[in-house]
Amino acid sequence: MDVNFPLHKAKNQNFRKKKNANESRKGIENLPDPILEHILSYLSTKDAVRTSILSKRWQYLWTSTPKLHLAEGERDERMVFMNFVERALALCDSSKITDFSLSCDVQYDTSRINAWIISVLKHKVQVLDMYLRNFQEPLALPPCLFTCESLEVLTLKMFHYLKLPSSISFSSLKILSLTKVIFSNDHSTQQLFSGCPLLEKLSIFDCIWKNVKDVCVSSPMLQELFISDRYLFEEKYGENDDKDDLNADVDDQKDFNGCKVVIFGTSLESFSFNGELINDYCLYNSSSIVKASLEVFERVELDNHQDAHCVFKLLSGLASVENLKLSSGIVDVLNYAEELFAHLPAFHKLTSLSLEGVETLFTCEPLLTMLQNSPLEFLDFEMDWLPLYDGDYDWVLDPLPSCFVTHLKAIQIYPFWGAEYEMHAVKILLEFASALERIVIICDENYFESRGGLKKQKEIYEQIRLFPRGSMSCVVHFCAGCSGRLPISSFHITDDASTS
């Protein structure tokens, strides 16, 4: 009896497990179709199709989900993938597809891919995301795409000419994202940006403007605009993976003097630029912009005087921002045109400024001039990932911005290594920021691992504690072991804080 009891107990446990599994399965089976379809919508279409083997009820349940996400994998057999897409669209023929994404090689199948797009548009699609690559023949997207009344979000990534029809009317489009597309000419590009009356967010990632001389972006509802001109930078360092034989030379910039892009920002709240100043961007009627970010790559092989004028135009259009982020490249470029210093805008509403590297503040006279009349309260330094600054760091704040005396309440530095020039910068900031309430210094834990760890960090902290302070109420938050930057407004004034 004693021998058989454990076996009997084990059998009971297995029976209960099977019973619980069956009950769980029955529980799922009892859920109504709309809930199951909602669950399936979070899966890729391939994974959703796999659920069809669960039971007869599940066999075609996936065809009712409003989302289709189709991606050709590296190991997929092309014909298997192409046939799978067509079968999926055929089985979903009676359903409404609200969200469709497609990622695949084009090769010689432009007609089949266009047929898929037309099929999806007939289903009144609202969100369309396409990543098309490896072109072996020219592609002209179907004209009905550009007059689709149901479409609210369009994301298009393809290193290929964007051939546009004569009529463009996105009557419901709110979000447009274009990546690496090649604009064909002034007229069609202008039609595209003018044909989105309800557009709220526009992103232009590394597109090719060489065939366009002038264009205007003036959507009355536009609130967010992000522009990246990094494709020549990526090309320089071999990072452009989307090039193919059909478009091998299309981004040659030898005879291109840049495109003038005029942006009317009557409702614009956020503007961001990242890349080389290949084109001339001008902001007009942009006093509504609250948040802006400018990251410029210095083009050392070219005349940077022209780039300095482009930066000047951008800064002039951002004179009303409250939150501003500037890269060190802005400083490098501005210094090529000293004649512009006296004409730079005064940021009368600027309360938060983020700079790349502490040296940015001390080596840019025009930046100090711009801050003279700003009500700056928060200053955030985003350091490079290695302390490689090798210039003269015997800095002074000249001229001293008046906001350092009257408004500046908080400073954050991340990541911090304790390099000599960083320590010197902290000393100056503590000495001259007489309204300062707190300074947050976040150490790079990985950097200190092989350099004394927590002991070294505490030594640095003790040095900083002895620095003279213009504000006797200023609290030093010296943070060790943090994985990233912290919201500077989350720090409350307490007693002097040591490493934590």
Please identify the structural class as seen in this structure. Answer: alpha/beta
- First-residue to last-residue Cα separation: 61 Å
What oligomeric state do the depicted chains represent? Answer: single chain
Q: Profile the largest sheet.
A: 15 strands, parallel
Strand order across the largest sheet = 1-2-3-4-6-8-10-12-14-15-16-17-18-19-20
Q: Round the mean pLDDT to the nearest integer and report it.
A: 82
> What is the alpha-carbon Rg in Å?
29 Å
Strand content: 15-25%
Shape designation: globular
**Unreliable runs, pLDDT <50, ≥5 residues?**
1-5, 18-24, 491-500
Structure description:
By secondary structure, this protein is of the alpha/beta class. It contains 15 helices and 20 strands. The strands form 3 sheets. A 15-stranded parallel β-sheet has the order 1-2-3-4-6-8-10-12-14-15-16-17-18-19-20. Strands 9-11-13 form a 3-stranded parallel β-sheet. It has a two-stranded parallel sheet with strand order 5-7. Strand 1, helix 4 and strand 2 (99-107) form a beta-alpha-beta unit. The longest helix has 26 residues, at 4-29. The termini are far apart. Residues 1-5, 18-24 and 491-500 have low confidence and may be disordered.
What descriptive keywords fit this protein?
alpha/beta; disordered C terminus; disordered N terminus; 500 residues; three-stranded parallel beta sheet; 15 helices; 15-stranded parallel beta sheet
